[in-house]
Amino acid sequence: xxxxxxxxxxxxxxxxxxxxxxxxxxxxxxxxxxxxxxxxxxxxxxxxxxxxxxxxxxxxxxxxxxxxxxxxxxxxxxxxxxxxxxxxxxxxxxxxxxxxxxxxxxxxxxxxxxxxxxxxxxxxxxxxxxxxxxxxxxxxxxxxxxxxxxxxxxxxxxxxxxxxxxxxxxxxxxxxx
Length: 177
Fold this sequence. Notes:
Blueprint: H1 2-17, E1 25-28, E2 34-37, E3 53-57, E4 79-81, E5 87-88, H2 94-103, E6 113-115, H3 129-132, H4 146-176
Parallel strand pairs: 2-3, 3-4, 5-6
Antiparallel strand pairs: 1-2
């Protein structure tokens, strides 16, 4: 019977690690989930990751940005190491910054920018929204400033009020004569 149990454990381990990305190594954890180690693999983009990834090590690669929502399909993800990558710190890293802020804010000081030149070597956690840039996102500009319409409507209402008051005064003084 112990041989069957060992075979079952071996099968379960193989089954959980079969979705492991090719350049990475994966290890099944005792408490469900995977330890995915992609350190030092020269990755330039994020590989497809198994949905049950719990610990993800992406340190010492060539990652410059991450797509928005890159970790949304990994609800069990607890540990993320993205240090020692040549991050291009612009608005394309907004998702990574917000993800780290929500889960491991101390990691923001360990992620350093390699470009653009103005913010090289700064930690991602110390950058302002202005420094990250807006990637061309702009609020739609109204064809007219809304406050102008409010001011104009107040002038119209005040003018109508004065005209009504003048009309009332004329009729009141005409009836007294």
